[in-house]
TrEMBL record:
<dbReference type="Pfam" id="PF11964">
    <property type="entry name" value="SpoIIAA-like"/>
</dbReference>
<dbReference type="InterPro" id="IPR038396">
    <property type="entry name" value="SpoIIAA-like_sf"/>
</dbReference>
<protein>
    <recommendedName>
        <fullName>STAS/SEC14 domain-containing protein</fullName>
    </recommendedName>
</protein>
<dbReference type="InterPro" id="IPR021866">
    <property type="entry name" value="SpoIIAA-like"/>
</dbReference>
<dbReference type="InterPro" id="IPR036513">
    <property type="entry name" value="STAS_dom_sf"/>
</dbReference>
Length: 120
């Protein structure tokens, strides 16, 4: 399975976000999700969110991750790894509207991310 936006390891897909997700990248992400879900069924995501100038509000966070709403039926869980701890509350807000199990992790918590994303 060839993916342009995600790194894949089994059913775990990792996406790094360093800037606003614009239309072309959104389309590529959706194409990758279509391929991955067709091949794997359900997937687990690790989203590495790096701070960038337009990433300053819950609305920006929601807008950049809007593809999750399209694929919530095929996503088992999402680990959001972020360099700003205060974004933890945004994960909680987003999960209220999506029904996807989401957990926030700091950049230094690599082992915890691995355990949680691989957990049952």
């Amino acid at each position: 399975m060839q993916l342009s936006e995600f790194k894949a390891a089994g059913n775990v897909l990792t996406l790094e976000v360093r800037e606003e997700i614009r239309k072309a990248r959104f389309k590529a992400i959706c194409e990758d999700m279509d391929r991955a879900t067709a091949a794997l069924g359900t997937v687990r995501l690790v989203l590495v969110m790096r701070h960038y100038p337009s990433f300053n509000s819950a609305e920006d966070f929601y807008d950049d991750l809007r593809f999750l709403r399209l694929y919530d039926h095929a996503i088992d869980r999402v680990a959001v790894v972020c360099d700003r701890f205060w974004k933890d509350s945004w994960v909680g807000i987003f999960s209220l509207f999506s029904g996807i199990r989401m957990q926030f992790f700091e950049m230094t918590q690599v082992r915890a991310v691995t355990r949680w994303i691989q957990g049952n």
